[in-house]
Write a structure and sequence with these properties.
Layout: E1 3-6, H1 12-20, E2 24-27, H2 33-39, E3 45-48, H3 56-61, E4 67-70, H4 80-85, E5 89-91, H5 98-114, H6 116-124, E6 142-146, H7 150-161, E7 165-169, H8 175-181, E8 184-185, H9 188-194, E9 197-200, H10 214-218, E10 224-228, H11 237-246, E11 249-254, E12 273-275, H12 284-304, H13 321-341, E13 346-355, H14 362-374, H15 386-392, E14 396-402, E15 410-418, E16 422-430, E17 434-440, E18 443-447, E19 452-459, H16 464-474, E20 479-486, E21 492-499, H17 505-512, E22 517-524
Parallel strand pairs: 1-2, 1-3, 3-4, 4-5, 6-7, 6-9, 7-8, 9-10, 10-11, 11-12, 13-14
Antiparallel strand pairs: 13-15, 15-16, 16-17, 17-18, 19-21, 19-22, 20-21
Helix pairs in contact: 1-12, 5-7, 13-14
């Protein structure tokens, strides 16, 4: 039974879902890093919000951990590189609080436009400063949207409903999607020059950190107003303070800060600043939604292998998982076969999908193939870290989908290029779910892979089968299956022999020494 730790406060519904799905769950909140390190090794899953930080030290101690689920969008409190290196899936819930955060951004923009917080404080103090609080309308103003994903697109929809013009900067926003949303796609500098209001809805990455700094602010029109309900590090607070004090920026509304909790901040006290304590996702509905989503996603992964909203591996929906599993097994077997034959450094890997396989979500299949390929020489390789390991080692990986006619309804072919050779192996599924090798090094053959296999590449000369049988018989190795293939008479030939026990080193050496044998390998699956 998988075991999950919920280390932050979240809706009780999360625990209920885990229990309903047959997963053991502990709720322990307010743990220090040391306390978390002391117990994390007992768990397969870790469910968190923003209070827990999954540092490299925590993840190093998490010897059984398979998944970290963030009930929310931002994952800057998770060391993703460390998680990926250890093969731990990192998930978030990008949809559960999207509406809530978008609504908060609109509310902040309205509060900023009409100076509602200051007017409320003044009025409750018994003042009647009607002439002091001269606001601006949102209608016909241009909203500059930095980031047009889940939350940004909802903000755009609400802003268009307020009769604003929306200009969006997002490197991943297609022209078609921009037209669908009714927004104008623009480069960042264009957005900065044209916007009356700017709102940020992008993750905090090396590329977006400090995206609103002194240089960016200098490009904005005088009187611009800025809203940030995304991540504090997107705005350089010192630069924003100068712009607010000079009046170039008429006002700013911030729900997030560079350092949180923001109990002391150089921006505090400015009259043209509206602040809230990271309330973007703080509605009853959002808290329940993200708790439900993270529990369901983690349970699906731990129980079925389905991967949804993962940030460091390809997604596999719960519906697709049963269909993909036999193909993933096939891809991993082909990778393992090739990996056990490799005798020099890998340079590139090409994974081809033909027939039905070409119609599938192939990213998980390729990750499985890389896992199989790298596992014979590296420890702790899985589908999460295999693509990263390949990249770090300079191995070029490519996928090819082809509609060319084949002898099989579905086919996966793995071609490996090393310093010395190019090798390929192809396989298919028999009976819908039974992996079978159908080609090795261009040699056609059909073989199921058992636990212990003997691979023999030889020149097609008479007598080898008898000699090989004698060596195995003398060693007491019983043959389960014996498959042969060749390109042409007297040419390259391959034998795949399934035996009941692992082939000892001395027996393998005896096989390799037989006449006309080019290569002999003991394979284990």
């Amino acid at each position: 039974m998988p075991k999950v730790l919920i280390s932050d406060k979240m809706s009780d519904r999360a625990k209920e879902i885990f229990v309903e799905r047959g997963i053991e769950v502990d709720v322990k909140t307010g743990l220090s890093e040391e306390e978390l390190i002391a117990i994390i090794g007992d768990y397969d899953g870790l469910a968190i919000r923003s209070a827990t930080t999954a540092t490299a030290k925590v993840l190093e101690a998490a010897t059984n951990l398979k998944v970290v689920g963030r009930a929310g969008i931002g994952v800057d409190n998770i060391d993703r590189d460390a998680a990926t290196a250890r093969g731990i899936v990192v998930m978030n819930t990008p949809f559960g609080n999207a509406i809530t955060t978008a609504e908060h951004a609109i509310a902040m923009m309205m509060a900023l436009a009409r100076q509602i917080p200051e007017a409320n404080e003044s009025t409750q103090e018994g003042k009647w400063e009607k002439s002091r609080f001269m606001g601006v309308e949102l209608t016909a103003k241009t909203l500059g949207l930095i980031g047009c994903g889940n939350i940004g697109s909802i903000v755009a929809d609400r802003a268009l409903g307020l009769k604003m013009k929306v200009v969006a900067f997002d490197p991943y926003l297609s022209d078609e999607r921009a037209r669908e949303l009714g927004v104008e796609k623009a480069e960042l500098d264009t957005l900065l020059r044209r916007a009356d209001f700017i709102t940020l809805h992008t993750p905090l990455t090396d590329q977006t950190r400090g995206i609103i700094d002194a240089a960016a602010l200098a490009k904005t029109k005088p009187g611009v107003r800025i809203v940030n309900c995304a991540r504090g590090g997107l705005v350089v607070e010192a630069d924003l303070k100068v712009a607010l004090e000079s009046g170039h920026v008429a006002g700013a509304a911030l729900d997030v800060f560079e350092k949180e909790p923001a109990t002391d901040n150089p921006l505090f006290g400015l009259e043209n600043l509206v602040c809230t304590p990271h309330l973007g996702a703080s509605t009853t509905e959002a808290q329940v939604n993200v708790a439900i989503q993270v529990a369901e996603q983690m349970a699906d992964y731990l129980l079925t292998g389905a991967v949804v909203n993962a940030l460091n591996m390809p997604s596999v929906s719960a519906e697709d998982a049963p269909r993909l599993m036999p193909y993933m097994r096939l891809a991993e077997l082909l990778g393992s076969f090739a990996g056990q034959l490799v005798e020099s450094s890998l340079k590139s890997v090409t994974i081809e999908y033909e027939g039905h396989a070409a119609e599938l979500n192939t990213k998980p299949l390729s990750a499985a193939a890389l896992k199989g390929l790298l596992s014979p020489v590296l420890d702790s390789v899985n589908m999460v870290n295999a693509p990263v390991i390949a990249q770090e080692r300079g191995i070029e990986v490519s996928e090819v989908r082809t509609a060319r006619e084949s002898d099989y309804q579905t086919l996966v072919r793995l071609t490996v290029v090393t310093e010395n050779h190019t090798r390929s192996i192809a396989g298919t599924l028999f009976g819908g779910d039974r992996p079978r090798v159908v080609e090795v090094k261009g040699v056609p053959m059909e073989a199921e892979l058992g636990h212990h296999m003997l691979y023999v590449n030889n020149e097609d000369k008479p007598g080898l089968i008898g000699l090989l049988g004698t060596v195995l018989g003398d060693a007491g190795l019983n043959i389960a299956t014996f498959q042969l293939g060749r390109t042409a008479a007297g040419d390259d030939a391959i034998a795949l022999v399934e035996v009941d026990q692992e082939v000892p080193a001395d027996v393998l050496a005896a096989v390799a020494a037989l006449p006309n044998v080019v290569q002999a390998k003991a394979l284990n699956f």
